Amino acid sequence: MKIDSAFATAPHATYARLREEGPVHRAVAPDGTDVWLVTRYADVRTALADPRLSLDKRHSRDGYRGFSLPPELDANLLNMDGPEHARLRRIIGRAFAPRRIARLRPRVQEITDELLAGLDGEVDLLPAFCAPLPITVICELLGVDAADRPDFRSWTDTLLAPESPEQARAALGSLHRYLLDLVAAKRARPGDDLLSTLISLRAEDRLSEDELTSAAFLVLFAGYENTVNLLGNGLVAMLSQPGAVEVVDESAVDELIRFDPPPQLAIRRFPVRDIEIGGVAIPAGATVMLSLVSAHHDADRFEAPERICPHRPDNQHLGFGHGPHYCLGASLARMEVEIGLGSLLRRFPNLALAVPEDELRWRNSFRNRGLLSLPVVLDPDLP
Predict the structure, then answer these.
(1) 201 confidence band (pLDDT: 50, 70, 90)
(2) Which N-terminal stretch is annotated as signal sequence (predicted)?
């Protein structure tokens, strides 16, 4: 089976067919990689926490390529397992302590209000709201000066959708050099920001220089991309089922993540030995892809999965992962979506798409689902 544009344009129909046909499928990714695609909720959830499935690329035996990073940015939580992962997660987790994240709520609301105050008429919400909200939050979290944020956003946007490999390498090089300079500046003049906290923990807990820079890169890249798409996908979902969500609270946010998760697939895994998933034998070193969006629409786990139910009982979605690799930034992402979408709809209760839903343009990716643009009319009923 070839993974093609259907996975990006019609994921629910495609995955419904695959779930019906079987729990695991051999497939060829667009880059030519042979993968094993897991589609049912019970298997995906179990596999996410299975220590026999490693995130360490050194366990790959089938030529997995994926997104190539220099070693200085690759020493992050998405490439580690076991004691090494637990050590780094414990250190970085201290920088994401609940009190630190809770203190950000007033500032996230303030940023949201500032962005909404500048909106009027017909607007593309992706560059006007969905992107600047998380990049501003992440930059303030890391301690990036306001004057440098346009470059920061430009490099990140290029990495998400490069026009060529050369352009991606140039953006990655610029971002890497900036992070190195930022670390040096924070080391000389610490502030009340996450990067300064990580620097102080580096000396205390023997965090290597590459691990420090990789952590900053992961916070930026994952925190920006996923939250942009959480905001965009969530708004489209609500507009597709009018009245389904009356209050954007944490429960509603979790349901929107279940309904249309930006990461369609969990981070690739590699079996450290021959294993079985759903009764299917998978050899050691194979590339295993766990479909979150398919798991979230598995009717054996979620009643009426095609409906948005903001107070769905026992909503154990997998949008932030499960087990030892559960996302450290989950509470921050939930807060940004709750404040962002809640404030947007309170300010513009009549907001509507400016084009039919089937004319929205989505990124051509089977890994991450996100819009290329989000044109809306803010007050369609006004003369």
Answers:
(1) confident
(2) none
